[in-house]
Design brief:
The chain is an alpha/beta fold. It folds into two domains: 40-89; 101-400, Rossmann fold (3-Layer(aba) Sandwich), CATH 3.40.50.1360. It is built from 13 helices and ten strands. It has helices at 44-55, 66-73, 77-89, 101-117, 140-178, 194-205, 234-245, 263-266, 270-280, 308-320, 350-357, 375-383, 394-400; strands spanning 124-128, 186-190, 215-219, 248-249, 284-287, 290-291, 323-327, 330-333, 363-367, 389-393. The strands form two sheets. The protein has a seven-stranded parallel beta sheet, sandwiched between helices. Helix 7 (234-245) links the parallel strand 3 (215-219) and strand 4. Helix 1 crosses helix 3 (77-89) and helix 4 (101-117) packs parallel to helix 13.
């Protein structure tokens, strides 16, 4: 004889096979189960117990695992979290951040600058501490000392990020090789000038974590010829950074600043077109910035022409048209609009940088600071949406958020 099957009525708190809660009286709609944390924060003694168990275990400062404390108190982790949050809001305990004041200031300024210019494409801000002396109009020798101190610190700060980019490029190249795929090298473009030279010297003369031919370093500008030395040219900076990382390098084999009427002729050779195409397809561009026509003393900005008289003439005309910023030898006014000059830049221009800012997976890194004459140019570049990543200093940052 087959045994009879019996059906038991689920007890309180159980769930029918259909998934319906049975926390209800027959004939009534199911009641929602009460939240386990509801009312737990009303018990002040319980909150004190949680605070002491978490942060003053056995009378000493502590920071214990939530799981262990919750188990000791016989409550869930969610209930413990609610108790601690309520205790903090009630002023039962405070949190003291014992970081150096300098580090706290840097963190606040990084957040403030990113918040101010985030809608323009700025995603990352990395700052070094700078002496308030930077705000003063210093003599050339002292200005050079301060600027080299700050730019050296910025180079040391940026180098590990470059290491990470190169390491990732090497990893992706190995994966592509295993899959039998051919890939283009990870391409980094670099501009000319003293700040980029400091960066190149740093990565060249310090150990690198990875060296790989999976990266290619290219100049973002042709040969300028007004920089006071070949080592300040973008193509030489590109070669040195490529050597540091064991990568490839290339150049734009033509003058960077032909007369406007000659520019189309200068850009005709195949190698020039190829160099321009490479810098326009960079994954990352690292650039400096300057004020237009500043005196080319030790640490000063770069002249617009090799001939001092011609440079002064061009600068005067540019200033009359509102030009105040020089980025890759393209001139902008305070509103970020291009200002015409008798020369046409052969290399990346502001529009190319702006396109990169809005392109997924591409970065424009502006490394600039250590000089009060760069305050306004940096602000213009950020406001014009030409930068995704700023590497600068705390005094410059205060200017950028109107704290100076």
């Amino acid at each position: 004889m087959a045994s009879e099957r019996t059906t038991k009525t689920p007890g309180p708190g159980k769930v029918e096979a259909s998934g319906a809660s049975v926390n209800s009286t027959p004939g009534e709609p199911p009641r929602r189960r009460s939240a386990p944390n509801r009312g737990v924060t009303a018990d002040r003694e319980r909150k004190e117990e949680a605070v002491i168990a978490m942060y003053r275990h056995r009378g000493k400062s502590s920071f214990r695992a939530l799981r262990i404390v919750a188990k000791e108190m016989g409550i869930s982790i969610q209930q413990l979290t609610s108790l601690l949050q309520s205790a903090f809001c009630d002023g039962m305990f405070t949190i003291d951040v014992n970081l150096e004041a300098e580090r706290i200031e840097i963190a606040h300024l990084e957040q403030d600058v990113k918040a101010r210019y985030g809608d323009k494409g700025l995603r990352t801000v990395t700052l070094v501490h700078a002496d308030p002396l930077l705000r003063e109009d210093l003599p050339p020798a002292e200005r050079l000392r301060v600027r080299l101190e700050v730019t050296g610190a910025m180079a040391r700060l940026l180098a590990p990020h470059l290491d990470a980019l190169v390491e990732n490029a090497a990893k992706e190249a190995r994966a592509a090789e295993r899959a039998g795929r051919q890939t283009e090298p990870f391409r980094i473009g670099v501009g000319p000038g003293r700040t980029l030279r400091v960066l190149a010297d740093h990565v060249l003369h310090t150990p690198r974590s990875v060296r790989t031919s999976a990266v290619e370093i290219v100049p973002t500008l042709g040969y300028v010829g007004t920089l006071g030395g070949n080592d300040l040219e973008a193509n030489m900076i590109a070669q040195d950074i490529a050597e540091a990382f064991g990568g490839l390098s290339d150049q734009i084999p033509c003058v960077a600043l032909p007369r406007a009427e000659e520019a189309s002729i200068v850009q005709q050779p195949h190698r020039v077109k190829e160099g321009l195409q490479k810098c326009r397809t960079c994954h990352v561009v690292i650039t400096g910035i300057g004020a237009v026509g500043a005196v080319a003393d030790n640490g000063g900005d770069l002249p617009l022409s090799k001939d001092p008289a011609e440079s002064a003439k061009v600068s005067e005309a540019v200033h009359r048209n509102g030009g105040c910023v020089q980025i890759g030898y393209s001139v902008l006014d305070a509103a970020g609009k291009s200002v015409p000059t008798p020369y046409k830049t052969v290399g990346l221009g502001p529009e190319d940088l702006r396109d990169m800012v809005h392109a997924e997976g591409r970065e424009v890194i502006l490394i600039a600071g250590g000089d009060r004459r760069r305050f306004l140019p940096i602000k213009v570049a950020l406001s014009a949406g030409l930068v995704t990543w700023l590497v600068s200093d705390t005094i410059t940052a205060k200017f950028l958020v109107d704290e100076l």
